[in-house]
Amino acid sequence: MEKKKLRGKAKYFGWGYVHGADGPFVSITRCLLDDCRLVMWTDAGVWYAENNVIKNAAENFGVGLRLIKVYSLDDYNIEAVFEPIPDAPQRFIYVDRGLRMPPANAYVLATDFGGEFCIKLYREDIHGNRVFLWGEDYIIK
Q: 118 lies in which domain range?
């Protein structure tokens, strides 16, 4: 099987500072999610899966991602699956104590996690194959 190098990148964009999205924001170049979904894995806790926190942050404070499903893997680990909205308009977002305009060619995943947690992002194709895009550990005191 031939491995292809992915165009684009996913990277930390800044820290959200609005109630409902006070966590890491990650920008994902739009071409990375062509015909694919975005899967976020986190060990932030099951509470986030059960209380619409992930949906609220991503859809109301991020750019171009719609939550399809979120489920717990065990008591701490959860996965959330997002579909990209290619025609989503760019808009200012609340990051790093101000309003910032993300790049026009990027989706932005907004989160609202606290405490000690890890986030990993994967691109998932229609066959369920995943490619790691980005990951980071956080300790919020």
A: 10-139
Helix (H, G, I), strand (E, B) or coil at 138: strand
DSSP labels, 30-97: GGGGTT-EEEEEE-S-THHHHTTHHHHHHHHHSBSEEEEEEEESSSS-EEEEEEE-TTPPP--EEETT
Tokens of 26: 């990650």
Q: Is the pTM of this model over 0.90?
A: yes
What single-letter amino acid sits at 134? W
- In tens, the pLDDT along 123-140 reads 999 999 999 999 999 998
User: How many domains in the chain?
Assistant: 1
